[in-house]
Amino acid sequence: MLENEKANRVDNYSQKSDKVLIELNQISKHYPNTIALDNISFQIHKGEIFCLIGPNGAGKSTLVKLITGQFKQTNGKIRVKGKDPYSERKSLFGVFGLVPQEIALYNELTGYENLGFHARLYNMPKSEIISKIEKLLKIAGLFERRNDRVGTYSGGMKRRLQLIRALLHEPELLILDEPTLGVDVQTRSAIHEYILELAKQGMTILVTTNYMEEAERLAEKIVILDTKIIEGPGRLREIQERVFPNTIFEFKSSHKNLTPEFYDRLLKEKLHGKILMEKSLSETHSFFQIMFESNNIEEIIEQFLGYTKSHNIHIEEFVFKKPTLEDIFLKLTGKEFRE
To answer: What is the value of pTM for the model shown?
Structure first.
């Protein structure tokens, strides 16, 4: 996304409603010998895109099931529009539009029949069903395949059909649990564009993902989750400035001549750097990610390249960058998202 588009979304965020749609207060979920969620608290306001990010097993899907009343929490309080989603689930039936992580469609039915079945479950007026289904099928690019059995659809087509099915009854809150898991780049981009368009229309959207680029593109507010809240909630820029205001430097180097002096005298003492990651790429090369306290990039480059040249250390593919969400997670937990 272009920088001016991101700036526009920041401006739009400042205009969001202060009405709280979802509130979690000290939520925990325990299983025998396992703590799935530990002391989770945050609010989701009407009209915002809220992203829960974290690695597999972080508790994202469990949290979705608690919010939608499929599970009951062990401790704490959840309110959706002021109601308990577990004990008052029936009264919240039409509030949610849920796109689960797993594909949950009837393969023996056509795309049109899948949507029609969903419409009848929500008691939609018969006079509206046909026009709404056809409109959404066209938006998803599935109109020409509407009479084909879903079992013949590609994975990306099924993901798009699940998305529009969740929108058929016009929910107040759209929940997307790993909405682009396993789809190609083109389908992911199309789904992102549609999500952003829904947000412009004022829909409240909760997204769980372990794709950092997805959260960076979509989120107005972010929580980094790994059983407990690691960081957030907050906007990406706020989290970056609070957690990681430093300069990030990445490079690839041959193992040859990487002596303790390189680590201690150059990186630590001279450049005041901290090694965030050192990963072996092959028998001859390693990848480094360094955080520097100084933001004087020219001085860092001059001293770094001067030292490595004089000590015959071969450096490849070096780059300075702003920290990503994955960098932030790695710094806070010492783990990579896809471990």
So the answer is: 0.74
